[in-house]
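Data availability (excerpt). The following record was deposited with the supplementary files.
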Amino acid sequence: MRQFAALFMRLDQSNKTTDKIVALKEYLLSAEDEDRLWTIALFTHRRPKRQVNTRLLREWCCEWSGIPDWLFEESYQTVGDLAETISLLLPITDGQQDYSLSYWIHYLMDLGKLDEGAKKEKILQAWQMMTKEERFIFIKLMTGGFRIGVSQNLITQAVADAFDLEKTEVAHRIMGDWLPQNVSFADLILAKKQSDDLSRPYPFFLAYPLEKDLSTYGDLSDWQVEWKWDGIRGQIIHRDGQVFIWSRGEELVTEKFPELTEMASKLPSGTVLDGEIVAFSEGMPLPFSLLQTRIGRKTLSKKILQDAPVSFIAYDVLEHAGQDFRNYPIKERRLVLENLVSSIDSNKLEISALVEAKDWNDLIYLQTESRIRMAEGFMLKRADSIYEVGRKKGSWWKWKIESLTIDGVLLYAQKGHGRRADLYTDYTLAVWEGDKLIPFAKAYSGLTDEEIRQVDKYVKQNTLEKFGPVRTVKPAMVFEIAFEGIQESPRHKSGIALRFPRIQRWRKDKPIEEANTLDDLKSLLSVYGR
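Predicted structure:
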């Protein structure tokens, strides 16, 4: 547990991907096999079932610490995290335990068969043996609140680096419904599986943002132009009767899209398609927010499948009849792709339509239709380009539309996480409706460290009310919020939801009276919403 707690703190204190991978790799190489397995499980959202009510943990903490309930609540509101609050309030001990992570997880799992008194005795005994950091992890595991800024993609990369494996192999091996109680680390990760090679995708070819004036890119006829769709970039693989669906982050997502799996089974064996998974119905893409309702769900109900239908918009064919097609010019790959799509009787497979324009000026005009089409702009691909690896300049460019913006007033603030846990970095912005401020968006990024410190100071000096970890702030600050899309939302007080809101700049030049109104948002909704 001590080793895992040290890993957790190391990961939590860094926002650099390389640092996190190094920390994970070093831990995986030194930990016991069962601890390695449980670490992978925890970072891929497989957690032990909660066995103790949080109300009891609060009571036991107050009893041992000798503090009244009101002081615990005040502390909790200041800290904002139950596990951290308890670990800070509990009396300091020598923390002499040296048991493994897997030992303590089994310890927690065994609590399920005990009565309340026995549970209390076991929990207090564990707390007495642990340091503050170990208690924090232990309580997180106990309450089911274990979360940290490590993606499945990151843990996959770390495992691959540590044990000299292909990242795609690791991603495939940790998918599914396995549990650490039912498999060994060697069987799950190290044993070679026949399906590993069948499932392997190709490295994605990524485009750079357009950099120069359009006139410098030569004649438009030298380019293949497509809409840039707003979804999840992915590859669909059908080999030897098996279907695999990969996201661009090399996450195996086959189980999340059963209708695409069924469609892909109709493709000829030895086919790999590159494209976009989009929410799609009646021949048109739907808002990305619908697709988000399916991301992260372990089970897909009939209602979810019905309310958030998806299709695959194919951009390219990377493998055909078992042959690598990436070195053929895109014109030739396109012909093969058209034949493949037309031969499949499924409304779950679309082909990315080519955009026809007379010249660059005509294309500029057509780009204004992007949001109406639920697209982000254009993709420009040289007509003779091959399918390369990674992000390369020259043959593929992405030309995105400008972000929408609105000026909002800071209304609420909440502390951040990790290295910013003591700073107010999470903001709720509002627009005017008459003489009232109506919340419309939350933003967590866009300011410099110095600006965050200035806002934090203002929040602490101008708090009007406290609601748990949230502070109501005296309205005085205006921020320009940029976002990529807008739609109606009955769940939000404003009736509107924004796509990817973030702070674009601090409008120190603008008084709060000049911030935008709810009617301004509604006018954007009428033009760009759906």
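Summary of structural features: Residues 409 and 478 are 5 Å apart (CA to CA).
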